[in-house]
Amino acid sequence: MTKIGIVGLGLIGGSLGLDFRVQGIEVVGVSRRQTTCDTALIQGVVDKASTELSILTDTEIVFICTPLAAIAPTLEAMLPYLNSQTVVTDVGSVKVPIVEACSTLWPNFVGGHPMAGTAQQGVEAAQTNLFQQAAYVLTPTTSTSPDAVKQVEQIGQLLGSNIYTCSPEIHDAAVAWISHLPVMVSAALIEACINQEEREVLNLAKNLASSGFRDTSRVGGGNVELGLMMAKYNRQQLLSSLEQYSQSLDKIITQIKQENWHNLKKILQSTQQVRPDFLN
Ligand code: NAP
To answer: Is the pLDDT confidence value at 197 over 90?
Structure first.
């Protein structure tokens, strides 16, 4: 791999650029604003940057790293600058609508989702090794070129990621549980706290909050646009996991109302036991 294109020089696009350049790969970047292109050059995220998609001519692989809503329109707009061999992949957090739209636009399209991020956004937040040891999901369909999948897989390995392959549908159902549901639960936690009416209690709570609140509120206090897009693009799967979550919460409320400490203990023992399965 000698020349990679990145469209959307934000946290994810910028972090990919930094890692590719460390590997000696030439990186050309496209972003919407000229100031972002300038910052990307100063930060060493790309070798060349432009607001024009024509800069992508001669790239072997292009990563589309824009917000979800812009992924398919971006691919459509860059078609005149791709040669027939160019592999195009995206990094969007939801896969079904993206893969449906992009696969019909470009035969060498491979849906992808590197599962790494921070609470920050924009090119200034780009960092090296963001994808190291992180999951990187590829979502080919029956019509996706196996050769194209292999190329994206090799790049994921170059980043030090752990590659997983599944259908777009299975991806969206799984990330609803471990990524999109936690964002909404965490946002609801913060919202419930700030709606607490006793000013003295709220002020003290703000001063006392430490690691427990930091952990549980982190994803609800992050990128607003990203949270909105998860809900909009993965609506059905998110609603289904939120409804099941609400049932679990009701179950816990019932045990506490009934002072059924035995059942509550059983629930907490079970959650304590299975939590490592999600984190190891
Ligand atoms: P971000 O930091 O806000 O970066 C997105 C960048 O895209 C912006 O800096 C913006 O740059 C540029 N952009 C917006 N519209 C564009 C367009 N039409 N053409 C070209 N560039 C455009 O967001 P991000 O967190 O990197 O997320 C980008 C993608 O990664 C999303 O699809 C998201 O689902 C996915 N993702 C995010 C995370 C995460 O945790 N953050 C994790 C995995 C995947 P300008 O300054 O030029 O406008």
So the answer is: yes
